[in-house]
Amino acid sequence: NRHSGFSLSDHKTIVALFFLGIIVWFGFFRLDYLGGLPPGDTLTYSMLARNIVSGNGIAHDTAKTLEVATLGHFPERDVRQPPFWPIILSLSFFIFGVSDLVIVLSSSFFYWLLIPLVYFLARKMFNERVALFSTVLTIFNFSLLKYSTSGLTEMFFTFLVTFSFFLIYRSEKRKDFVFIGFLLGIAYMTRSQAIFFVPGIV
Hints:
The chain is mainly α. It contains ten helices and two strands, in the order ααβαβααααααα. It has a two-stranded antiparallel sheet with strand order 1-2.
């Protein structure tokens, strides 16, 4: 029933699934995280976050070869990367210090939050059995595990979109939809692909 609450059994299941997710994640991390952070966008996001913490704003320390001739100094402002994930990373750096582990844990935090969120969404839409099955699939999803240790935007973006769907399904008040719009705005500032989710959500 859409309007029914969650039982004590649901909450016990969530706790068990959450701990299962932590165990699975740490097992995957030990097996997979051997060569450090992946090259490419992860390094870009961490560089932008370090510059935010240093007071330089969303800026690059390096440039591509073709840009070197036109840039006069570093760091240079970045107007191409969606800014919200570097801002999240910068908050993590500010609180816990700058390290590869902090980058990994920033991604994994949203993998762990996704576990109860998927359960509650599936429970609201279907039943306890479907919720359990959906959440177990989420926990053992290789792509999600990979992204959760990558420092990339995908894990945070997935959480935002899933949370938006959950709120849409359970919300009836106009002010809730204002908050949903706010979440989708953050999703767009994390990955511009969020614009394609808006028609389907609306």
